[in-house]
Amino acid sequence: MKDILEETWTYRIMVILCLCILLVYTYLTNEDILLKYMGGEFALDTMLIWHIGIVGLLSLVLFYLLQSTLDYKSQNIVLKQYISNMQAELNVERDAFKDLKSVSGDKILQLGAFIVTISDMAKALNSVLETVPLLKTILRKSSALLGSEKCAIFMIDKDKKQLRLVDAVGYDKNKLEEMTLKCDKSSGILGLSAAEGKFYSRNTLEEDYSKKYILKNDKFPVRFSQPIVYGGEVLAIICIGDIRIEISESHIIRILSAMANFGAVAISNSSLVERIKDQSIRDSLTQLYNHQHFQQKFDNMISEAINTKTHLGFMMIDLDHFKKLNDTYGHQMGDLGLIKLAHILNAKAKEGDEAARYGGEEFAYISPGLNLKETVNLADEIRNEYKNVVLELNGAKASCTLSVGVSVYLPDVTGKIDKNTLIKIADKALYEAKAKGGDIVVAAKGV
Predict the structure, then answer these.
(1) To which H or E segment does residue 406 belong?
(2) What is the dihedral of CA 167, 173, 177, 183, to 10 degrees?
(3) How far is CA 370 from CA 281, 293, 379, 425, 445, in A?
(4) What is the residue extent of each domain of the chain?
(5) Quick one: fold of 131-279?
(6) Which of 83, 105, 296, 349 is paired with 9 by a 20 to 30 Å CA distance?
């Protein structure tokens, strides 16, 4: 608008200046007659031209002034209307901002809390290198972000295809541990989420008539279920039972998805760390615990047996004539003999039992809760089973036998005892078995 006004006034000033220059020139010539035509001739003197020019110039100036005044008034009206409209729009925006500020104050605080919690979680996950503590951290952070007083987290047991409780808030942990929760629709939302690797909410299933029936299978109340997935594999499930804060389901999905993504990467890293750690405590050939880890485990198990006043069976196992086996058939056949025994020990081990390669062709086995007779019977089962194993390699066949020395911690008889004493007693019984020709179990005397 400003450019248009400037162009109009420039044009008008140029016209007026040209007329002024023309009039001044005419006046300065001072000719009595500019044009004369007598007897039918037309005469026009300079004074008349001057007067006519002055009148015309004044008329033109007045015309321009009048037009400019009218244009100004018209433009002023439009400008006032424009300003009025802008003011109205600003008032509307100001009112909307006030409403937004009053409504979203809590939202902004929630967003701030979310950012802080995510930052804290990233730091916490970086410092946790084991899966179970890591999952507990994820549970606590999820509870804090969503304001949930009821939540739980489960790991997937791949062998049994079941869910195993890791930790819970607001639920009875004992009841949850007693439940048999499968990775399928028979366990409600939780099982469906684990089976499909997808987020599910109770509201979503209630609105889906094809899946609504799954809610009848819920064994405990869950509003939201979020799987932790890495590489297409479901690793764990986050369950949310309630939420105290006002938050939409879309935001809940975003928050749980962010937590699951953090958890997936962290669990993958922790699994790698645990595999490396596990390899460091296992014998590379037999995959049983190595001597160093066995010593640490034995310390813990003997302390627990003393504190709880429970029996603890222990046996030292040695392959008979192992050097002859190596010399006759080669060290690969000897390695096969060691591996076969490791398989038998793993197969015989009940929950809580520990087997280890003590060194060379010697093995150690600890079994909590067994008295002397039960430990001897278990040792004899191992001896008989291994005796019947055929070692076959490159067309050659061989067999081997075992000698076993047994010692047992008996709380009512022995009192306090350390691991070294139990090892020494079992080792003495093993030497006695070897002295008798091998392929025999000998129980320590006076235990």
Answers:
(1) strand 402-409
(2) -60
(3) 26, 22, 11, 17, 17
(4) 2-93, 131-279, 291-443
(5) Beta-Lactamase (3.30.450)
(6) 83
Q: Could you say which DSSP state residue 221 is in?
A: -
The architecture (CATH level 2) of 291-443 comes to 2-Layer Sandwich (3.30)
Q: In what order do the strands lie in the sheet with 312-319?
A: 354-359, 362-368, 312-319, 402-409, 440-443
Residue 203, token pair as written in the block: 């509201």
Provide the whole-model pTM.
Answer: 0.52
Look up tokens 């076993």; give the residue: 404
Are 329 and 395 contacting, i.e. CB atoms less than 8 angstroms apart? no
* Top-confidence residue, 63 or 348: 348
Q: What is the pLDDT of residues 208-229, one digit of tens each?
A: 878 888 887 777 778 888 898 8
Angle at 291 between CA 382 and CA 316, to 5 degrees: 30
Distance between CA atoms of residues 292 and 297, nearest Å: 9
Q: What is the DSSP string of 355-368?
A: EEEEETTEEEEEEE
Convert the pLDDT of each residue in 72-116 to its tens digit.
Answer: 556 556 556 656 766 676 666 566 555 545 544 555 445 555 555
Tokens of 175: 């009841």
